[in-house]
Amino acid sequence: MSDAPLFDFDTPVLRRGSHCHKWDDSDDPGMLPMWVADMDFRTAPAVVEALQRRAEHGVFGYTRVPERYFEAIIGWYDRRHGMPLKRDWLLYTTGVVPALSAIIQALAQPGDGVIVQTPAYNCFFSSIRNSGCRQVDNPLRQDADGYYQIDFEDLTVKAADPKNRFLLLCNPHNPVGRVWRREELEQLGQICQQHGVIVIADEIHSDLIRPGFRHTPFAAVNEACRRGSITCSAPSKTFNLAGLQTANIIVADPEWRRRIDRQININETCELNPFGVEALIAAYTEGEAWLEALRAYLAGNYAIVEAALHNLLPQLRITPLEATYLAWIDCTALEMPSQEIAQRLRDRHHLWLSEGILYGDAGEGFIRLNFACSRDRLQEGIHRLRAAFTPGGALSRI
């Protein structure tokens, strides 16, 4: 019997020249991009096969979403998260960011405050701003070990302001990599319920949990959390399907659902393409073995990054990671703006990381590194990062 792994994550995939946002946004042929949250792996074979079958049909007209699409989502949530869903709760749209915008536009009034736990996914900021609302920061607290926690005292103050009507919850959190515990979500829910704050949960990273941790959907915490929240999810991060533009909204409240559905139509983001539909069905019904192999591989990659920073780059500190494939690295010891750190790495070492300031003022002094790539490519990225700190390197003080 062969000892070869069932799924291959070690063979690099050539993406440059494929109209790839991650690789083709730079004109530098030597650039190594480890920035945007996009994996360098081929998706699950079951998804590829489903798309090939659909392509062979040869007709790609207007597409209706079949019942098996919704059945796949319901089955996935039941098996993976122990969360029962009703078919009526589900809406679909072209992405989680369009979903967030549609929700805010449907339910908010101009000038309403939307609480965000910074540092936070940067598209939260544009969704709030473009919807005519105000961003209200509830910065996360960091302990001496770099571990992030919710500042519930500050959240209580912000939620008590009647002008602040929403909270955008990143669960699990991007970029800090926290998997919020049930008790934390319960406390957050109690505060929001007490003050009538609607929780909008972005749970796109919910399947990319490190071994030893478990994702708790906010709406599954208790009945009050289910009634007072709206959840956005997609297979795009889990199976690397962002280009197929498929996402879902889970909303139990019928009036909210009616208004959000209407807003999705107003925004003209109410049609899915046939490939996105088939990809989701295949991923959620046949992709679990691949996902488990992916999670194991990512855990190994994180261990490599963690060890490299600890042993080779002690001036940098990696934030304890519980989910995602995004390492959040504390560079504050350099006493240099994150934008300058990232620029120096790009210009001198051809390494593209995300500057922390993108995620709000609370991200200043940090960089984000995407380690969802082959081991060889990851080692090359670490080599380039380390070179920046050697004498003569872009971040060397010698």
Automatic annotation (TrEMBL):
Family annotation (CDD domains): AAT_like (cd00609)
Class of this enzyme: lyase
Official protein name in the record: cysteine-S-conjugate beta-lyase
UniProt GO molecular function: cysteine-S-conjugate beta-lyase activity; pyridoxal phosphate binding
Organism annotation: Kushneria avicenniae
SUPFAM superfamilies per the UniProt record, alphabetical: PLP-dependent transferases
Transmembrane regions: none
Superkingdom of source: Bacteria
Keyword Lyase belongs to the record: yes
Source species taxonomy: Bacteria, Pseudomonadati, Pseudomonadota, Gammaproteobacteria, Oceanospirillales
Pfam families listed in its UniProt record: Aminotran_1_2
E.C. designation(s): 4.4.1.13
Entries under Gene3D superfamilies matching the protein: Aspartate Aminotransferase, domain 1 (3.90.1150.10), Type I PLP-dependent aspartate aminotransferase-like (Major domain) (3.40.640.10)
Domain Aminotransferase class I/classII large: 38-385
Keywords: Lyase, Pyridoxal phosphate
Required co-factors: pyridoxal 5'-phosphate
InterPro entries: Aminotransferase_I/II_large (IPR004839), C-S_lyase_PatB-like (IPR027619), Class-II_PLP-Dep_Aminotrans (IPR051798), PyrdxlP-dep_Trfase (IPR015424), PyrdxlP-dep_Trfase_major (IPR015421), PyrdxlP-dep_Trfase_small (IPR015422)
Family: Belongs to the class-II pyridoxal-phosphate-dependent aminotransferase family. MalY/PatB cystathionine beta-lyase subfamily.
